[in-house]
Design goal:
heterodimer; A: alpha+beta; tRNA-splicing ligase RtcB; 8-stranded mixed β-sheet; 7-stranded mixed β-sheet; 26% strand; B: alpha+beta; Archease, Possible Chaperone, Chain: A, domain 1; 3-stranded antiparallel β-sheet; 2 helices; 8 strands
């Protein structure tokens, strides 16, 4: 049973699951809540049993069934007495999204759309078993783990201004490449500069609607403008790092006598070697992901320059949506350092936070919410409600409502492509079945999800962008 | 007895595997993992890769076995359709000695429906079940895709 706190806030009471230390809180509309499975609520409750959790185990309006934390899950832990858990980060560490704005208009780009999408599909390797274009050395791989996008820019991928417009400056402090296994390195080396597959994509979009003129101007967005969105993460390197440390942390659970309702919530008390080693390895994977998105951005610029030699593609912002970070937040009237876990949730810091680049600090950080293939994406601006309610966090996407198996039974990939083509969207993918499992209908409508965070003043709507061309793995 | 059964899961892939012996169980789990990505009947056995694992528990052994297959898949750029293992108790723990057989990925011929990112520990369990008066091994695994 859920308790209604507000029109858009529902509580999973202590007692829903044995051992809950705090209640769960789901930020969601009644309509969206109807689609949330009971398993997702159980996962919110499971997270509430972890030691040192502060205030609530939270879930965003795009919440759906995950493994460990629910997707859309947010939880913060005290430095003293809290834990860190890979269950709250996931395997695709720093899976995230970035948006580039161009100075091109949709009508100028339209005649070249097929060429652009074909070139992006060709120049940015994607799909299962894709070999990257890069051949990085062991030393360069270490640099990517340690310095992320900052290394990529030095290596010639992009410009220093890009770093200013990345969460964490595209480089998380505290990375420990010595905690990255040989296996993770072997997976990571050939995959730097690859998109991956599944819901990852590279998309050419048009700004379709502006909700807030002032904020749109600050973010450099206007109606009819062409933007590019890149959605991907840390690839095999991140997956292996999580796999390796999950086993170490499973042993730590026994060692430190922690009781867990789900093995994927394996964790270690903050300050222990197991916790610190995981944090260092996770930060290395996060940096790898920022380097990856930075490299892909550089290749995207190359493709655009081929057809539009004078075009500018500036980074609006780059956000992580699978990561644990040390942040200061207000708890019971005093500032505390917390380990905030976001599993399928985006940081959405409101005005004034020092972590936000100068250009946006007065307004709040850009929050980029990718849609599913063929549906709109949104740009929002982090707001005061986020700091009050969710440790500065918002939703991360639309949220799945249909399983992949069901999607493949219901939709044929070729049909999905035809429908998108009729709607004027040029799509390229390695396999039509990949399209079926990502058909637009398998996700919640993203406008409903975005409306909830807007109503709660977690993040304000700035712009809606619609896809014109999509390259998928 | 159905050796591999895929269950509904909204965002990921969940499967249950069964075997008359632990060896059969592990072999079916390998097949279920690869089968989540590609039709194993399209994968010829042209090469084989050895796998040796030691772990402190049976569950850890299964987790590492599946993670190792995924690792080989990515690093060797190979798909597999044959799995063979021998399991042995070693003091407090377990050891596995086996091999996976398959071929290098040919993007023209091998059509991947999805990419498995990792093996999760969510609702991960190994147990016994009675089927037709016979006691068999079962395991449940959720994959992150």
């Amino acid at each position: 049973m859920l308790n209604r706190i507000d029109d858009y806030i529902f509580e999973v009471p202590i007692g829903h699951q044995k051992g809950m230390r705090v209640p769960g809180r789901i930020f969601i509309s009644e309509r969206l809540l109807e689609q949330v499975e009971s398993g997702t609520l159980d996962q919110v409750a499971n997270v509430a049993t972890l030691p040192g959790i502060v205030n609530y185990s939270m879930a965003m309006p795009d919440a759906h069934l995950g493994y460990g934390f629910p997707i859309g899950g947010v939880a913060a832990f005290r430095e003293d007495g809290g834990v860190i858990s890979p269950g709250g980060v996931g395997f695709d560490i720093n899976c995230g999204v970035r948006m580039l704005r161009t100075d091109l208009l949709a009508e100028d780009v339209a005649p070249m759309m097929t060429n652009l999408v074909e070139d992006l599909f060709h120049d940015v390797p994607s799909g299962v078993g894709a070999k990257g274009r890069l051949r990085v050395s062991e030393h360069e791989l270490d640099e990517a783990f340690t310095r992320g996008a900052a290394w990529a820019v030095e290596a010639g991928f992009g410009v220093p201004e890009d770093l200013e417009h990345c969460e964490e400056g595209g480089r998380m402090e505290g990375a420990r490449p010595d905690q990255v296994s040989l296996k993770a390195r072997k997976r990571g080396r050939p995959q730097l500069g690859t998109l991956g597959s599944g819901n990852h994509f590279l998309e050419i979009q048009r700004v379709d609607e502006i909700f807030d003129d002032d904020l749109a101007r600050r973010f450099g967005l206007f109606r009819g403008q062409i933007t590019v969105m890149i959605h991907c993460g840390s690839r095999g390197a991140g997956h292996q790092i999580c796999t390796d440390h999950l086993q170490v942390l499973s042993r730590a659970v026994k060692k430190y006598g922690i009781e867990l309702p789900d093995k994927q919530l394996a964790c270690a008390p903050l300050g222990t070697p197991e916790a610190e080693n995981y944090f260092g390895a996770m930060a290395a994977a996060a940096n790898y992901a920022w380097a990856n998105r930075q490299i892909i951005s550089a290749w995207t610029r190359e493709v655009f320059e081929r057809y539009f030699p004078d075009a500018r593609l500036d980074l609006v912002y780059d956000v992580a949506h699978n990561v644990a970070k040390v942040e200061e937040h207000e708890v019971d009237g005093s500032r505390e350092r917390l380990y905030v876990h976001r599993k399928g949730a985006t940081r959405a810091f409101g005005p004034g936070r020092p972590e936000i680049p100068m250009a946006y600090r007065e307004a709040g950080q850009p929050v980029i919410i990718p849609g599913s293939m063929g549906t709109p994406s949104y740009v929002l601006c982090g707001s005061a409600g986020a700091m009050r309610l969710t440790f500065g966090s918002a939703c991360h996407g639309a949220g799945r409502i249909m399983s992949r198996t069901q999607a493949k039974k219901t939709y044929a990939g070729a049909e999905v492509k035809e429908v998108l083509t009729r709607r004027g969207i040029k799509v390229m993918a390695t396999h039509p079945k990949m399209l079926a499992e990502e058909a637009p209908e398998v996700y919640k409508p993203s406008f409903e999800v975005v409306d909830v965070v807007h109503h709660l003043d977690i993040a304000r709507k700035v712009a809606k962008v619609v896809p014109l061309g999509v390259s998928k793995g | 007895m159905e050796p591999v059964e895929y269950l509904e899961h909204t965002a990921d892939v969940k499967f249950r595997v069964r075997g008359r012996s632990l060896e059969e169980l592990f072999e079916s789990a390998g097949l279920a993992l690869i089968g989540a990505m590609i039709d194993p009947s399209t994968v010829r056995v042209e090469e084989s890769w050895p796998v040796e694992i030691e772990a402190e528990s049976l569950e850890a052994l299964l987790y590492e076995w599946l993670s190792e297959i995924l690792y080989l898949f990515e690093v060797e750029l190979a798909a597999f359709s044959e799995f063979e293992v021998a399991l042995e108790r070693r003091g407090d723990g377990w050891s596995l000695s086996g091999r996976v057989g398959g071929e290098r990925i040919d993007r023209e011929r091998h059509l991947f429906e999805t990419e498995v990112k990792a093996v999760t520990l969510h609702q991960f369990e190994i147990g016994r079940e009675e089927v037709g008066g016979e006691e068999i091994w079962t395991a449940q695994v959720v994959l992150d895709v």
